[in-house]
């Protein structure tokens, strides 16, 4: 049964439901709609559920949009203009992006692009999460610019070490070639009968 309390709490009489034994039970409005200040409680609950669902889908779409943007080029190094495409997926939302980056001069780069998420925009209450986003950026290089043809001191030291090793290897190869030539000359003399030296056969290549 529906009970209205006699006591006044915070300026109002409390209400509750009781079973046949007088035990308080959940208040169940059956067969009619409960209104508060002229607004349907169930209608507000349904609206909130729909808004929360759309908000979650919209957030997933926004995440996919952002991920697709990150795949686009931000600077152009090897060429004057670079363009690229990007794609992303998050929580069953899929997005596609396209953008370009251009080198204005040695110190300034610009980039622009956009992405679109499939499935349309999502409305939640008084707000809307759109299905597309665009971006533009500028890169300013400050300080001394490093020439691409210049090498660091560490790289220079490593190159010197490699050159030194190559020189040593070349010297060893030259020494071996000279030994081979000397042996070849002696073998030719043996073949021609011009030399009878017994230690020719024992000559070993270093």
From TrEMBL:
Keyword NAD assigned: no
Organism of this sequence: Prochlorococcus marinus XMU1424
Coiled coil region boundaries: 142-190
One cellular-component annotation, GO: cell outer membrane
Gene3D superfamilies recorded: GSPII I/J protein-like
Tagged with keyword Iron-sulfur: no
Compartments, record wording: Cell outer membrane; Cell surface
Pfam families listed in its UniProt record: YadA_anchor
Annotated Trimeric autotransporter adhesin YadA-like C-terminal membrane anchor domain residues: 74-125
Superkingdom: Bacteria
Cleaved signal peptide residues: none
The protein's name: YadA-like family protein
Alphabetic keyword roster: Cell outer membrane, Coiled coil, Membrane, Signal, Transmembrane, Transmembrane beta strand
